[in-house]
Every structure is written in C-alpha cells, then in structure tokens.
C-alpha cells in the first residue's frame, strides 16, 4: 500500500486485494483490450484501404472505431499495470488527464452515434437527397463538431472536479479516476458544481438518445412500408442492435453519474463502470461494422488475398 501522506495522487481500489485475483483481472482486461484494439484497428484499416467503403456511413464508422480505441486505452492499460505491479497509486497529473480524456471521448462517442443515426435516417427516409445532405463538407464539419463537443465536456468536468476541496483519505473505489467516485472524497456540499455539470452533460446525452430513438422510429416506419420482407429483416437486424448498444451505454453511464455520492462503495458501482467503459468499445466493432455485409465481403476478400500471397511466397521459398 502506497503512503499518500507525502503524495498528491490517489489510490485506485477497484478490485480485490488478493494477488491471484489481481492477476486474473489483469489477464482478463488484457484479453478484452486486445480484442477491442484488433476489431477497431481492423475496421479502420479496411475502410481506409478499400475505396468502395469511402461513403459517409463508413466515414463515421471509422471515427467511431478511433474513439473506441482511445476511450478503452484511457482506463484499461492503467488498470492492467496497477494489477500486475500490485501498485494502485495514480498521480494527480495522471488522474487529471484520465478524467479529461475519458469524459471528452465518451461525450464524443455519444455525439458521433447521434450523427450516425441521422445519417441512416437520411439514407433510408430521404434517399434522393442523401448525396446533397450528407456531402463531404457536411461529414467533415460533423466530425469536427463531435471532437469540439467532447473537448468542451471534458474540460468542464476536469476544471470543476479538480477545483473541489477534498477531505479524508484519497482513495477511489474504482479501477480508474471515475468522477462519481471522486465526489465521495469531496468536503460536505462542495461538489454541487460538479453535480450541476454532470446533470447538464447527462441532459445533453439524453437529448442525443431521444434524437437517436426518433431517427430509428422514422427509419422503422419507412421500412415497414417496404413490401420486401427480406429488406425489412435486414434493416431491423442492423438497427435494433444499434439502439440497444446506445441505450445500454447511456443508461449505465447516466445511472452512475446521477446517483448521489455514497460513503459505502459497492460492487454495483464497479459493474456499471465496466458497462460504460469496457463493454461498448469491445462490442461496437461487432455491432456496427463486422455484421455489415459490405464489411464482411471486403474482410473476406482481404484475408483471401493475404492467404494467397503467403501461399505463393511459401511455394517460391520451397522451390529455392
């Protein structure tokens, strides 16, 4: 246990103190992290290299994958390192950066999911105007707005959160510098500003959720008028998982951020934090991209080409 009397950092006490369980946690998180990185890097690479996928939908998917890589890299590697070294200490500077980047990236992810739902709405409900509405300039401005919104949210939370006087031991019962858990360290009634900021960002997230749901309701109502059952099934199988993932992400994050701070940390806090920090970046590549027929076709083609090239290379080597 690190002595914090001469340090300005915090202790992250999210998982068990048992050494064997710490190793299990580190290995489990490492596997999840590698899966998330592999899936998202694969998507970015395929979309970048294949010119058939240079359309607004895949343009936004690429940035969603980039956000997923960044957001899971903010929290999970630090947690893995802490478990492997049996050192739960995190410096004040690291904690500030972790809070800023996590809030900024999470806010950006909500924003880009909203943009993606609008893109699907225009593509299905207004197909004749799609090229005009979702032109390259609009897509670029949308992505820029996503990053700006995320940066503003991250800056607001960071400035307000780290201006709050802290009382008692600087121990965070979480595997990363989670804002709701840090509020438990605040002196009495000193966290009202952070609660106000959290409520504001949660309200903005709720508005995004309503926009997403409204877009998909319009999409479903349009699809139901299509006589082809096969086309209806295809759209529903694609859109329903999208709605589920967005709702799951926002509801778990909103529940954790809006709950009043408690002096008795529980396993529920840890579970909900995993739901909105680790699960979405790992599942998004499967839900949004790898189930897509065009993506699967390009991936299959790429793998087949790579396999053929390696096979020819080995034949050449053996002939020598």
TrEMBL record:
Entry-linked InterPro entries: GPCR_Rhodpsn, GPCR_Rhodpsn_7TM, Olfact_rcpt, Olfactory_GPCR
Superkingdom of the organism of origin: Eukaryota
Keywords: Cell membrane, G-protein coupled receptor, Membrane, Olfaction, Receptor, Sensory transduction, Transducer, Transmembrane, Transmembrane helix
Main localization, broad class: membrane
Transmembrane segments: 23-47, 59-76, 96-118, 139-160, 195-217, 238-258, 270-290
Residues annotated as domain G-protein coupled receptors family 1 profile: 39-288
Cellular compartments annotated: Cell membrane
Bilayer topology term: Multi-pass membrane protein
SUPFAM superfamilies the UniProt entry points to: Family A G protein-coupled receptor-like (SSF81321)
PROSITE patterns: G_PROTEIN_RECEP_F1_1, G_PROTEIN_RECEP_F1_2
GO molecular function: G protein-coupled receptor activity; olfactory receptor activity
CC per GO annotation: plasma membrane
Family listed: Belongs to the G-protein coupled receptor 1 family.
Function: Odorant receptor.
Protein name in the entry: Olfactory receptor
Source organism per UniProt: Heterocephalus glaber
């Amino acid at each position: 246990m690190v002595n914090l009397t001469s340090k300005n950092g915090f202790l992250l006490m999210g998982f068990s103190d048992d050494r064997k369980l710490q190793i299990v946690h580190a290995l489990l998180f490492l596997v999840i992290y590698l899966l998330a990185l592999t899936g998202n890097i694969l998507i970015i690479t395929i979309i970048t290299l294949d010119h058939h996928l240079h359309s607004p939908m895949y343009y936004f998917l690429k940035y969603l994958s980039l956000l997923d890589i960044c957001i899971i890299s903010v929290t999970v590697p630090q947690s893995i390192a802490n478990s492997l070294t049996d050192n739960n200490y995190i410096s004040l500077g690291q904690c500030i950066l972790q809070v800023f980047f996590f809030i900024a990236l999470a806010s950006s992810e909500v924003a880009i999911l909203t943009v993606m739902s609008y893109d699907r709405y225009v593509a299905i409900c207004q197909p004749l105007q799609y090229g005009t509405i979702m032109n390259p300039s609009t897509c670029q401005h949308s992505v820029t707005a996503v990053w700006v919104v995320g940066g503003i949210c991250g800056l607001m939370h960071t400035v307000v959160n780290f201006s709050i006087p802290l009382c008692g031991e600087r121990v965070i019962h979480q595997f990363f510098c989670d804002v709701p858990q840090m509020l438990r360290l605040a002196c009495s009634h000193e966290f009202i500003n952070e609660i106000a900021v959290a409520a504001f960002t949660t309200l903005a997230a709720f508005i995004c959720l309503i926009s997403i749901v409204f877009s998909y309701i319009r999409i479903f109502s349009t699809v139901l008028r299509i006589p082809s059952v096969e086309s209806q099934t295809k759209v529903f199988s694609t859109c329903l998982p999208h709605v589920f993932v967005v709702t799951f992400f926002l509801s778990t994050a909103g529940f954790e951020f809006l709950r009043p701070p408690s002096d008795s940390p529980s396993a529920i806090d840890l579970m909900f934090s995993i739901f909105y920090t680790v699960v979405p970046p790992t599942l998004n590549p499967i839900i949004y991209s790898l189930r897509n027929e065009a993506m699967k076709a390009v991936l299959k083609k790429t793998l087949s080409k790579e396999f053929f090239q390696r096979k020819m290379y080995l034949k050449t080597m053996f002939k020598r």
